[in-house]
Automatic annotation (TrEMBL):
Domain Nucleotidyl transferase intervals: 15-283
SUPFAM superfamilies: Nucleotide-diphospho-sugar transferases (SSF53448), Trimeric LpxA-like enzymes (SSF51161)
Protein name: Glucose-1-phosphate adenylyltransferase
NCBIfam families documented for this protein: glgC (TIGR02091), PRK00725.1 (NF001947), PRK00844.1 (NF002023)
Protein species of origin: Allorhizobium borbori
GO molecular function terms attached to this record: ATP binding; glucose-1-phosphate adenylyltransferase activity
Reactions listed under catalytic activity: alpha-D-glucose 1-phosphate + ATP + H(+) = ADP-alpha-D-glucose + diphosphate
Length: 419
């Protein structure tokens, strides 16, 4: 093992792939890419990958955007503009801009890196950390970089241990006893087990570490292959598994946990149900994800807001919240909340009741509304007396209702009610 003078992260660049739509989130991604979707009261999903990079010591970051990127780009400009080139730091937002050809947008995850090689190379990073921008987790990438260098791998892949029955939706790795990857299969019907732990499989987190020169040579080779789909999971990683050395890095060995977090936490909040559940989980007395851990902060756009306010103390008109997370600039005016999470700037008016509600910024809840098991999109105006969560058949006709009973409410859906 080589002696290190400084952390490897100082010589690394994090490259975040944030171009995906996230179509399973339905109307939540009609106006924004999945990485730009709100999470946890004040953050966006992409803030977790970016915060992990900053907290790990990485000071060069690139973000590749594509689908409906305005909301994401605006958030990055507002919240992530503190890196300074005079300190050898950089933060590049890299929209698909037909830089290689006038007809070519990003054709795949690998192509989203390849098309920006002329931006990456002048920085001269020794290592590239390729990240997905749409997962919720806390991880120290420095530990993954150290394993990559110590193992002599061509690529190191971040992995989750998941039950074999749940691994069919992932890219899954077969490994030997030293975690060297012997096969990589996308969404297999019969996922391979882990040596010594056959009931579980190793699923890809979409996190890859490369030596930069090796990656750039590989991307150029892939770009010259007319049969390639330009994708890390489908093309780049299988090629290395077959022709080089790919090593699995287990998330449990580098996940960040406070003393309150019992197990490694990673979530793909890619469906309405998963998104609702991950947000509602934050209202637990001791949530599985500790967003209050000051040793590993989740950086985001720190909007200047007044404090939350609760008013009125009359029978049936008492501003109150139980087992709930309430963000700044919220006014709970004679409304009762239970197990709900409110983002910035929500107004909940008299005699209304919210239960198991995830309410995005700037929502107005009218008087006497009763809302249960809902996700309410940004800026929605809930009319007086609206009832959701009590009549499944009626809910399904008016809103996006999942099989488990969660209703997504958007302004367009509300507007149709009033026609």
């Amino acid at each position: 093992m080589e002696r290190r003078i400084q952390p490897l992260s100082r010589d690394a660049m994090a490259y975040v792939l944030a171009g995906g739509r996230g179509s399973r989130l339905k109307e939540l991604t009609d106006r924004r890419a999945k990485p730009a979707v709100y999470f946890g009261g004040k953050a966006r999903i992409i803030d977790f990958a970016l915060s992990n990079a900053i907290n790990s010591g990485i000071r060069r970051i690139g973000v590749a955007t594509q689908y409906k990127a305005h909301s994401l780009i605006r958030h990055l400009q507002r919240g992530w503009n503190f890196l300074r080139p005079e300190r050898n730091e950089s933060f590049d937002i890299l929209p698909a801009s037909q830089r290689v050809s006038e007809t070519q947008w990003y054709e795949g995850t690998a192509d989203a890196v390849y098309q920006n090689l002329d931006i990456i190379e002048p920085y001269g990073p020794e290592y590239m950390v390729i990240l997905a921008g749409d997962h919720i987790y806390k991880m120290d990438y420095e530990l993954m970089l150290q394993q990559h260098v110590d193992s002599g791998a061509d690529v190191t892949i971040g992995c989750l241990e998941v039950p074999r029955a749940e691994a069919t939706g992932f890219g899954v790795m077969a490994v030997d006893e030293n975690d060297v990857i012997t096969d990589f299969v996308e969404k297999p019907a019969d996922p391979p087990g882990i040596p010594g732990n056959p009931e579980n499989s190793l699923a890809s987190m979409g996190i890859y570490v490369f030596h930069t020169k090796f990656l750039l040579d590989l991307l150029r080779r892939d770009a010259a292959d007319p049969t390639s789909s330009r994708d890390f999971g489908k093309d780049i990683i299988p090629y290395i598994v077959k022709n080089g050395k790919a090593v699995a890095h287990r998330f449990a060995s580098s996940c960040i946990r406070s003393h309150l977090e019992k197990a490694p936490y990673w979530r793909d909040v890619g469906t309405i149900d998963a998104y609702w559940q991950a947000n509602i989980d934050l209202t637990d007395v001791v949530p599985e994800l500790d967003i209050y851990d000051k040793s590993w902060p989740i950086w985001t756009y720190a909007e200047i807001t007044p404090p939350a306010k609760f008013v009125h103390d009359d029978e049936n008109r008492r501003g109150s919240a139980v087992s709930s997370v309430i963000s700044g600039d919220c006014i709970i005016s004679g409304s009762s909340l239970y197990r709900s999470l409110l983002f910035t700037g929500v107004r909940a008016n008299s005699y209304s009741r919210l239960e198991n509600a995830v309410v995005l910024p700037s929502v107005f809840v009218g008087r006497h509304a009763r809302l249960r098991n809902v996700v309410i999109d940004h800026g929605v105006q809930i009319p007086e007396g609206l009832v959701v969560g009590e009549d499944p058949e009626l809910d399904a006709k008016r809103f996006r209702r999942t099989e488990s009973g969660i209703c997504l409410i958007t302004q367009n859906m509300i507007d149709r009610l009033e026609r």
